[in-house]
Structures are given as structure tokens and as C-alpha cells.
Write a structure and sequence with these properties.
This protein is an alpha+beta fold. It has one domain (5-349). It contains 10 helices and 10 strands.
Length: 356
């Protein structure tokens, strides 16, 4: 969760604004009710606010498709306060207020920050593509009783239903920022997270319809008020997967910023994921053109570099619309991003057990 000092400085003003807004909202709730709310049991520390600000900026600039932020343990009331803060931040409300949303998965409690417009567009494109498309994302079945490298042509029923729900989010005209709650079986949560986060290889449990309870049918609900809080649920983690002991290609992408005294610069992680070697072999066997581990590495680097360039162009336009004083945080962000470069490391790992 800790950020390198270069990016910490770039997002600090937004982090401070988030922290003060959440504190003010919490104080107002205590004044009104006379007691501390159950949903406000975990205070947002400065480090958590820095991490959330960094995650929100990554998604707002489309450097990431979504970010998993459940490590910060943000309550529904705090989520609502953060979304309100994004709409009033003087330096970037036009960048942040219309499109950034939280979504919590039930029953796993995974919490994502995502862009409503971008996610809806991605979902429509995914649902509209041919099942024979050689382009990522690729599906990899990771059920313990399946051979490593099994690559189904179509997602399972729940993963497909979740993506279909996300394809129907309201995007025009842009509405107020919102919190969403997505319900599915725990087995489907792994695939949903992989798709949301934009991984080129989506790990997927093939759950039998008969073991999915009615309470775990896929549904997507929008919450607009901080009082809407999902109740904790007991749930069973998916069964063991088939990745233990199998060679995996590990991709780690980072933004590298120049640093005094360090010739290689300082790295701030963007994302990391794995692709089983057996999946790559199966795709090559299926005649996916020009596919190998280094080709995926190069494609990821090109994609992230293109995203960085487009983010700089977007910041240019936003800065031009603001007064000089209000634009200072965005200028600092622009300078840091302009001085950074994308680096994608590739290695091979084999682990006795793989957590998903």
C-alpha cells in the first residue's frame, strides 16, 4: 500500500482533501446520532487516503481499468463521503466527479474503484466479440479437477451475467457518483475480479449451477446514500485450484520515476498478474498469432505507454480549463507522469500453492 515519495507528493493534496471530508462527514454523523456509527468503525489513516487517492487517479486517467482497494477497509459511509469529496475537490472535480464509482462484491467484500463509462464500454466490447477471437482476455479454468491450461471459449454463466450487468450502467448523461453492490457466488468472484482489473488471463472457476444458492444469483444494485450498507455474510472460499506446482509467467508493471542517487529510478507498482505456461502453450497450439511470453510483455508495455500518453493529453485539457492556483495539483501530477516511464518485468515462478 505505501507509495514512493515521488507519487506520494503528486497525490497528497487529493489525499488530504479525502481525509478531511471523511472526518467531517463522520463528525456530522456523530453529532446527529450522538454515537459512533458501526459503519465508521475504521478510521482512514493518511497512508490509506494516499493509497485511495492514487488508485482513484489511476482509474480517472485510465492508466488502470479498475483497482482493488479492499485492503483499505473503506466502509460504505466512508465510500459515500469520498465520492462527495470528489465532486467538490477544487482542483479536479471535472476529472473525478462524474465517472468514478465504488463497487463491492458480495459475499467476498472485495471493493473496487472503477470508471463507469470505461467499464461499460469494455463490457459491451467483450460481450460483442467472437468466441473465436484470439485477443485477450483469455480464460483459464483453475478448478482442481481440470488440467492446467484448459481454456474455455466462453465465460461461465455467472461471469457472463456479471459482465452483462456492467454493460448496462448508466453513462449518458453522466450521473452523480455512485456505489454499487455486485452479488455472485464466491466461485465467480475470481473471474469477475480478473475481468474488472483488466488482466489478459482471467482465472475462472466453473461452478455448477446446482451449488449456487438463490442468494448468490448475479445482481447489481446501486446505492446513493451512505445509510445503504451491505451486511456481512459468511461464505466459503472457492475450492483448491490447479495452479500449485505449475510454471507461471509473472508480469509486473510499474511507473519508473527519476530519482537522485538512483540510476535506475524509483518504481511505483501499477499492476501484476500471472499467466500459466500451459495456457500460453495451449493458445500457441490453437494458432494464436505471434504469442509468447515476451510478446505479451511487449504488448502490455505498449498499451500502458499509450495510456500514459493519453492521460497527459487529458491533463493538458483539464489544466487549461482551471485557474492557475486551482490547477497546481494537476500540474504536479502532470509533471510526475511526464517524467515517468513504463517498465514491465517478466519472470517465471513456480509455487507449491497459489492464492487467488
Amino acid at each position: 500500500m505505501p507509495l514512493q515519495s515521488t507519487w506520494r507528493d503528486a497525490v497528497e493534496e487529493l489525499a488530504n482533501y479525502i481525509q478531511s471530508s471523511v472526518s467531517a462527514s463522520s463528525a456530522h454523523a456523530r453529532t446527529r446520532t450522538g454515537k459512533r456509527s458501526r459503519t465508521d468503525a475504521h478510521d482512514l489513516t493518511k497512508d490509506k487516503c494516499l493509497y485511495l487517492a492514487w488508485s482513484i487517479i489511476l482509474v480517472a486517467l485510465r492508466l488502470r481499468d479498475a483497482v482493488l482497494v479492499d485492503e483499505a477497509r473503506v466502509t460504505p459511509a466512508q465510500q459515500a463521503a469520498i465520492l462527495d469529496a470528489l465532486q467538490t475537490w477544487p482542483s479536479g472535480s471535472s476529472l473525478l466527479s462524474k465517472d468514478i464509482c465504488f463497487m463491492q462484491h458480495r459475499p467476498t467484500a472485495q471493493l473496487f474503484v472503477f470508471s463507469r463509462t470505461h467499464t461499460t464500454q469494455r463490457a459491451k466490447e467483450y460481450l460483442g466479440r467472437s468466441s473465436a477471437s484470439p485477443s485477450p482476455p483469455w480464460l483459464a479454468l483453475v478448478c482442481a479437477d481440470k488440467p492446467v491450461g484448459t481454456t474455455p471459449a466462453q465465460p461461465g454463466r455467472q461471469l457472463h451475467a456479471a459482465i452483462k450487468c456492467l454493460s448496462g450502467l448508466p453513462t449518458s448523461p453522466p450521473g452523480a457518483a455512485a456505489r454499487y453492490e455486485l452479488t455472485s457466488s464466491p466461485q465467480a468472484a475470481v473471474g469477475i475480479a480478473g475481468w474488472l482489473l483488466g488482466y489478459p488471463c482471467i482465472y475462472h472457476f466453473e461452478a455448477e449451477d446446482s451449488i449456487i444458492s438463490r442468494s448468490q444469483e448475479v445482481s447489481l444494485v446501486e446505492h446513493n446514500h451512505s445509510a445503504d450498507a451491505c451486511e456481512d455474510q459468511d461464505w466459503d472460499e472457492p475450492t483448491a485450484n490447479n495452479l500449485g506446482g505449475s510454471p507461471l509467467w509473472l508480469y509486473q508493471a510499474a511507473l519508473v520515476s527519476p530519482s537522485l542517487g538512483e540510476s535506475s529510478g524509483t518504481e511505483t507498482a501499477l499492476l501484476s498478474f500471472t499467466i500459466p505456461e500451459a495456457v500460453m502453450d495451449r493458445l500457441i497450439y490453437q494458432s494464436v498469432p505471434r504469442l509468447d511470453a515476451s510478446n505479451v510483455q511487449a504488448h502490455l508495455a505498449d498499451d500502458l505507454e499509450q495510456r500514459r500518453t493519453e492521460a497527459l493529453e487529458r491533463l493538458d485539457k483539464l489544466i487549461a480549463e482551471l485557474e492557475v492556483e486551482a490547477s497546481t495539483p494537476l500540474r504536479r501530477l502532470q509533471h510526475t507522469l511526464d517524467a515517468s516511464r513504463v517498465r514491465v518485468a517478466l519472470s517465471q515462478v513456480t509455487l507449491p500453492l497459489v492464492a487467488l
